[in-house]
Amino acid sequence: MSQGDTEPTRQNGTESGPTPRGGTASEPGPGTRGRGAVVAALMLSMALAALDSTIVATAVPQIVGDLGGFSVFSWLFSGYLLAVTVSLPVYGKLSDTFGRKPVLIVGAAVFLLGSLLCALAWNMGALIAFRIVQGLGGGALQGTVQTLAADLYPLKERPKIQSKLSTVWAVSAVAGPGVGGLLAAYADWRWIFLVNLPVGGLALWLIVRHLHEPQREKAFPRARVDWAGALAVFGCGGALLTALVQGGVAWPWLSPPSLALFGAGLALLAVVVPVERRAAEPIIPGWVWRRRTIAAVNLALGALGLLMVAPTVFLPTYAQSVLGLGPVAAGFVLSVWTLSWPVSAAFSQHVYRRIGFRNTAMLGIGTATLVLAAFPLLPYPGEAWQPTLLMLVLGAALGLFQLPLIVGVQSTVGWAERGTTTASVLFCRQTGQTVGAAAFGAVANGVLAARLGGAGDLDAIAHGLNTGAASEATRRAIADAVHAVYLGAAGAAALAFLVLLLLAPRRFPVLTDN
Fold this sequence. Notes:
The chain is mainly α. It has three domains: about 30-215, MFS general substrate transporter like domains (Growth Hormone, Chain: A, Up-down Bundle), CATH 1.20.1250.20; about 230-280; about 285-514, MFS general substrate transporter like domains (Growth Hormone, Chain: A). It has helices at about 35-55, 60-65, 75-100, 100-120, 125-150, 160-185, 190-195, 195-210, 215-220, 225-245, 255-280, 285-290, 290-320, 325-335, 335-355, 355-375, 385-410, 415-450, 460-465, 470-500, and strands spanning about 10, 15. Strand 1 and strand 2 (about 15) form a beta hairpin. Helix 6 (about 160-185) packs antiparallel against helix 15 (about 335-355), helix 13 (about 290-320) packs antiparallel against helix 14 and helix 16 (about 355-375) runs antiparallel to helix 20. It is globular and about 65 Å long.
């Protein structure tokens, strides 16, 4: 019987259930000696990964002005995202095999090497290549930091560290654009990469000095690394995600490049399945999808990644074009959800201790569904406080949704499976964001084409709106397009609700902390 198939019982105020092959929740985690220094290192590492995209975005004009390559600059973000996403499962399995410390050290070193190379880039092609190197290190930072957070703290204390990490993301989202703009305007765009070096160096030193893990060979037999599976997963994910990211942007969906990438991705997928089935220690083991709890959380957080595209990508355009706000005010409308999200996440522990992980997450995503569905009901053109209030409530709802699922699913596996489980959850969320960007971009452009007779795309129209030259018809078309995207996001939220209702067990089978 797979984990999640047995109805767990209530023990000591936490959800509990049968112990799967991963062992007890605390076997064999890092020691508590120097835990505060390790937590500081984790927060610094998370800040590096969280700041990366937001701090680069505001420096794009200076980068393009210096290096050229305007037609391909979007790959500064797409290349990094792809590298992070496809490397997450590999790092998750490696951390279960060799321990968290070596994987985190290697990942931080690769990220810092990529940062240094980005600062030395001589043209746009080199900068994109070095951003991919950064992403290969960023995948290790994101997955291993989240896994170590669960290793360091027992279940009752895990919300503390998770809320700290959520706060890091919130602060980075708010501060990143400002810091990037200041460095680009008053120093040089290369400093947005160089500032990573002292921060990452400090995090690396703290990890090396203060993180102590048991000798792996004493606790478990020496495991073999599924390198063939890692290469197959990397190639398959890279081809499919590249097709999704660039389809409809760099080339039409039915063009030869798009069809070739999808074909290559599907062919590699046909290779991944038998390779992983035969591997003694597969990169993506079958139990990740056979256990009800893990499968449900993967699907639910994949839907979260999808719905997050609506506010993060389309709300700033809506605020500037429909509401007539400036860039700073439009950024504030979006940033308020990063304020309520960590506060709600920290509060969620008081809720899930009473009603359980699943019910708390369903409460959060149910509220998010209503908020997203309410967005198209806003009056035209409306006042700025109206979407701001909705975003504030949305952040609070998603804080109740995401953190209980992450804490809950990490608590259902032992040390030897926690890295793989965490990586699978983050991989699904990242993949959801990639799919959402492609799908909702197509929806928005389709609505605009229908309203304006095929004139332009959302990015080009938004650029024209910033000059104040847009007509009333264009503004209404943008409002309709964003409303359609929010309805799609509400559908994704409703899908996550149904997944939890129908697939997730009523009580998560939590392991007992020793």
